[in-house]
Amino acid sequence: MPTKTPASLSANRAAISHRLGYALRHPERVGPHLLRSARDSWLRLKHRDHVSYYRAVMASDAARSPQAAVGSRSHERWLALGRMQFDYLLEHGLRADQRVLDIGCGNLRAGHHFIAYLEPGHYYGVDISPDILVAAKQTLTEYGLQGKLPYLTLTQDLRLDFLPDGHFDVVHAHSVFSHSPLGVIDECLANVGRVLAPGGFFDFTFDRTEGVEHQVLREDFYYRTETLVRLAARHGLAARFMDDWEARPHGQSKIRVTASGV
Asked: Which residues are within 8 A (CB) of 249 and not within 5 positions of it... i.e. 6 or more apart?
């Protein structure tokens, strides 16, 4: 997992100089990156909008390994990342009687912890990928959590218009905005305030840069903290950088959003 060093936070991973230097330091990764680039070019031609494009990426990745598709190179790392997300929210006061919306729930890496802990029917997971939701149902079965009656729903966008007003105490999006162009993030922030319960909050992780904002292929996006804070403010939301998340062994950073004045 990459560390958030000053050098990594200022790097422009899309720059030719960075890519050449990385190739020299990690020659074993050149082949996989070239294959990923070829896939990116092909999928860009087939899918003009980002959701359709990334749905195809997830179909390709999930066919090989659902756990790798959600960013876990091993089962042990899948377990550790899921536990990390769950423990963090527990430390921040998550209660079993609260309702959680998990945006980009994937194959329930963290979701199986939430489902086991929350009261029946209090977990709602959404994802754009039908393939990863099939894997989520398999995780649900493997952990014997059917009796907790979680909701697992396919979505095409982040307007959240199929969800009720003021319903969720916690909204959670891990490794979603790191794969999203700014328009998708703006759509989510424009609508998430409506589904938050009074006193609720929305936590999301993102790939942080302190240099120029950039993307690698059409899959990985790097944003400055102030960009996302300003975007939240445009929709009447207060956003703050979560310093205590930085101590976790995870390459992404976290922002918490609440209704202004909360």
From this structure: 1, 84
